[in-house]
Specification:
- The protein has two domains: 5-185 and 293-323, Vaccinia Virus protein VP39 (Rossmann fold, 3-Layer(aba) Sandwich), CATH 3.40.50; 191-289, DNA Methylase, Chain A, domain 2 (Alpha-Beta Complex), CATH 3.90.120.
- 35% of the residues lie in helices and 15% in strands.
- The chain has helices at 16-27, 42-52, 100-110, 130-141, 191-194, 207-216, 262-268, 281-290, 294-335; strands at residues 5-10, 32-37, 73-76, 114-120, 144-152, 163-171, 225-229, 232-234, 252-254.
- The strands form two sheets. Strands 2-1-3-4-6-5 form a six-stranded mixed β-sheet, with helices on both faces. The chain has a three-stranded antiparallel β-sheet with strand order 8-7-9, with no helix packed on it.
- Mean pLDDT is 82; it is low at 81-97 and 228-242.
């Protein structure tokens, strides 16, 4: 049976978008299939392949947009390092920053009915807002109706203060149904719920680090995760935490005693425990830190689907009318 929805997963990482989409469509009993994925990092490709059975195409710049399968939805968490606080902040002056235009090429050629893009919060104000303005103008020039909003993982059930900008678009929308961003639901998962109980000694900090951190944070509540890096101190709250993408492993301390385990970092991003970790711990931590928060993607996808399904139904209805009209005209012609 042909899937009702086909989607592609660009700059896929370890599959945050993929997990969110698979879970959403499965929960809504919608037959959906990922028909193409790409990821340049070999460790991420290994993790993606082990968990989804697909082998992501390595380099999107080497793929002709004409050769990408037809699809209804495009997902892309395009490289954030050129726009992030912790990264170099060069934007389009960084080669990775120009990868957005690979997305634009695919949108121009394939014209999927909708897309969801994701990047760091700083992206909104990068270069005094000119970067975002250029991207929105590009997308609108491709006949997409677009909108964007900064969303916080903390507002969608994850015990993590992680703000990301999401950009959504619909190709030549005709349905009167409007797109609305998901509402905060405050169904909060306590930080204590994602922490493992039996933790290997290798994750505990040295006595020197313990003494320094406990002196600095002696008034903090527990459980909490503390993080100091060049981006500045990140406040810790009871039963919540703040985790930056690419956060330094050495400075993430649970209750000032130990570092986060790879599984805990994945849980903070909304990955299920069924997600297989098949690469070294150092790579899992990096992958988790760079991933999209699964819960937020599912919430955005639900809002996108509310409008998209009406668009698709309208297209199907108009197509049926045209087919009926052609048959009627043929029948009339055959009478004479």
């Amino acid at each position: 049976m042909k899937p009702k929805i086909r989607f592609i997963d660009l700059f896929a990482g370890i599959g945050g978008f993929r997990i969110a989409a698979d879970e959403f469509f499965r929960n809504h009993r919608i037959k959906a299939k990922c028909v193409f994925s790409c990821e340049i990092d070999s460790h991420c490709r290994t993790a993606y392949s082990s968990n989804f059975g697909d082998n992501p195409f390595p380099d999107i710049t080497k793929k002709d947009p004409k050769d990408i399968p037809e699809h209804e939805i495009l997902f892309a968490g395009f490289p954030c390092q050129p726009f992030s606080i912790i990264g170099n902040g060069k934007g389009f002056d960084d080669a990775r920053g120009t990868l957005f235009f690979e997305i634009a090429k695919i949108l121009k050629e394939q014209k999927p009915k909708a897309f969801i893009l994701e990047n760091v919060k700083r992206f909104v104000n990068h270069n005094n807002g000119q970067t975002l303005k250029r991207i929105l103008e590009t997308l609108r020039g491709l006949d997409y109706e677009v909108d964007y909003k900064v969303l916080n993982a903390l507002d969608f059930g994850l015990p993590q203060k992680r703000e990301r900008v999401f950009i959504v678009g619909f190709y030549k929308p005709r349905s009167p149904v409007l797109f609305t961003w998901p509402q905060k639901h405050y169904l909060f998962t306590p930080l204590s719920d994602i922490l493992e109980t039996n933790v290997h000694p290798k994750h505990f900090a040295s006595e020197k680090i313990l003494l320094k951190r406990k002196t600095m944070h002696k008034s903090k509540y527990k459980p909490a995760i503390w993080h100091e890096n060049k981006a500045g101190n990140i406040s810790s709250y009871p039963f919540s935490c703040a985790l930056r993408a690419g956060a330094s492993y050495n400075y993430l301390l649970v209750n000032g005693e130990r570092r986060l385990t790879p599984r805990e970092m994945l849980r903070l991003q909304g990955f299920p425990d069924s997600f297989k970790t098949v690469v070294p711990d150092s790579q899992v931590r990096k992958q988790a830190g760079n991933s999209v928060p699964v819960n937020v993607v599912k919430a955005v996808l639900e809002s996108v689907w509310h409008k998209l399904k009406n668009e698709l139904d309208l297209i199907k209805k108009n197509s049926s009318k045209e087919t009926h009209g052609r048959r009627k005209n043929t029948a009339i012609e055959n009478r004479f």
